Amino acid sequence: MHARPFIDSLDFASNGQQISGVVLVAELSRLADILSDTAGELSYTIHGALDKHSVPKLILSLDGGCHLTCQRCLQSMDYQIQVSTSVMLRDQATLDLLDEAEVEEEYESILADAHLDVLNLLEDEIILSLPFAPKHDVGVCKAAKEVKHQSDDSHPFAALAKLKI
Ligand SMILES: [Zn+2]
């Protein structure tokens, strides 16, 4: 098992550094709790940069697969995680100001931590990106097929069709 990565976030952003790696879904315990099982892995890349107002930011990109629970049939379904987002790094005073003013920003702001837990940040962003009520496509979902079948039977001509056989 490789060491859990941490970055000095402000330094990382100011110097335009980059980190990338692969993480197992099983290592992300809060995420794993939401999923139907802990199978799957994700590859990630984080770039540090300054935005046009010189605010330090982290540009995240994540790609991988996991299994969600379909909310129609409660069976496992494949889900492709693809996240491309940025987070702005702010000090606590600025975070408080933004919070009080209820400023709507394009990207989320987080505390500029000198010991930022990379996997924890990735996990937050993945959880935010997951659909609220995931469902299989109708053609694939067992529950959806059963519903369709029942409605076919209730059709007046369905009885006639059976008589012909
Ligand atoms: Zn389903």
Give the ordered list of helices and strands: EHEHEEEHEEHHH
Question: What is the mean pLDDT?
Answer: 89
What best-fitting shape do the alpha-carbon axes yield?
A: elongated
Strand count, sense and barrel status of the largest sheet are: 5 strands, mixed
Number of strands: 7
SS-based structural class? alpha+beta
Question: Count of helices?
Answer: 6
* Helix fraction by DSSP (H/I, runs of at least 4): 25-40%
**pLDDT below 50 for ≥5 consecutive residues: which ranges?**
none
Give the strand order of the largest sheet, numbering strands 1, 2, ... along the chain: 2-3-4-5-6
What's the N-to-C terminus distance? 63 Å
List the ligand species. Answer: zinc ion
Strand content: 25-35%
Domains counted in the coordinates: how many?
2
Rg result: 23 Å
SSE layout and pairings?
Layout: E1 6-7, H1 9-14, E2 18-24, H2 29-34, E3 41-50, E4 56-69, E5 76-90, H3 92-101, E6 108-111, E7 116-117, H4 118-129, H5 142-154, H6 156-164
Parallel strand pairs: 5-6
Antiparallel strand pairs: 1-7, 2-3, 3-4, 4-5
This protein binds zinc ion.
Give a verbal description of the structure.
Helix content is 34%, strand content 33%. The chain has 165 residues and is of the alpha+beta class. The chain has 2 domains: 129 residues, no CATH class; 29 residues. The strands form 2 sheets. A 5-stranded mixed sheet has the order 2-3-4-5-6. A two-stranded antiparallel sheet has the order 1-7. β4 and β5 form a beta hairpin. The longest helix is centred in the C-terminal third of the chain and has 13 residues. The chain is elongated. The mean pLDDT is 89. The structure holds zinc ion. Zinc ion binds next to α5.
